[in-house]
Design goal:
about 110 residues, alpha+beta, Beta Polymerase, domain 2
Length: about 110
């Protein structure tokens, strides 16, 4: 399985689970610690937990890759680390506050589902 297949599978899971404003950023050559960010909004704590839980479960099942989850939904930011792919699940307010898209503006947007 390639990294490209993994990132597209991640985006598909988030889209199926009704994640909002999904952005896939290619950070190769921009960041040394990973190749891709996937950034997604959830409208509530419950939704953020559901997105993270379903993502970890489905990617483990379909691609035999274990994600490492950090953060708490009540804080508005969950992270699922797949090594070269890092998934950020935000509440809309926290996404605006941290503005990762602006911080990593040197990255190339490969997919943006609004």
């Amino acid at each position: 399985m390639s990294k490209t297949e993994l990132v597209h599978a991640i985006v598909d899971v988030l889209e199926e689970k009704k994640g909002e404003d999904i952005l896939l950023l290619d950070l190769k050559g921009v960041a040394e610690f990973c190749d891709y960010f996937v950034i997604c909004n959830g409208t509530s704590d419950r939704m953020l937990d559901a997105l993270a839980d379903d993502l970890v479960r489905q990617i483990r099942k379909s691609h035999q890759v274990k994600g490492h989850q950090e953060g708490l939904a009540r804080d508005g930011w969950l992270l699922v680390d797949y090594g070269n792919v890092i998934v950020h699940l935000f509440s809309p307010d926290q996404r605006d506050y941290y503005a990762l898209e602006e911080l990593w503006e040197g990255g190339k947007a490969l997919v943006h589902i609004q």
